[in-house]
Design brief:
single chain; alpha+beta; six-stranded antiparallel β-sheet; two-stranded antiparallel ribbon
């Protein structure tokens, strides 16, 4: 499988490094990434992490905008200014820098969450709160859809 799936929580070592989960490293290896692009997620306290193709995807979107309008400038500021490259060492670890910690609140542990073509890095308790909100929203949507179907068939 060539997708980032599932989740895992790993401890940060005394030198500030954390092991990327083995199944995520295998995706990185299969996709031929030598470094990872990390971006502070816009609406949650997490890092979006993927290969250079993630950065390429964002830059392709910026290229669709008029370069003289504020939108293109804002997007570039976000994608380039809030992004950084992460290097995997030979043991599959990355350094948890202040850049990562400031936005996420990560201290001693990191939860890696697969998102298909990229993964996210979360502080575990913040992820738990976010996951509960996501489940609640999806459950409400399911209930609304079910009620709408029932009202339409009666």
């Amino acid at each position: 499988m060539d997708r980032f799936l599932s989740s895992a929580t790993n401890r940060i070592d005394a030198k500030g490094r954390v092991s990327v989960p083995a199944h995520f490293r295998s995706v990185v290896q299969r996709r031929g990434f030598s470094e990872l692009y990390a971006l502070r997620a816009l609406d949650v306290p997490a890092m979006d992490v993927g290969g250079p193709d993630l950065l390429d995807r964002y830059e392709e979107r910026i290229a669709l905008e008029d370069p003289f309008l504020q939108t293109a400038d804002d997007m570039s500021f976000f994608i380039h200014g809030d992004g950084s490259f992460l290097k995997l060492d030979q043991d599959g670890r990355i350094t948890v820098s202040d850049f990562l910690r400031e936005h996420t609140g990560i201290t001693t542990e990191v939860t890696f969450v697969g998102r298909g073509l990229f993964f996210q890095m979360w502080e575990p308790e913040r992820l738990n709160a976010h996951a509960a909100e996501v489940r609640q929203r999806l459950s409400a949507m399911r209930q609304q859809a079910s009620q709408a179907r029932a009202a339409g068939t009666e």
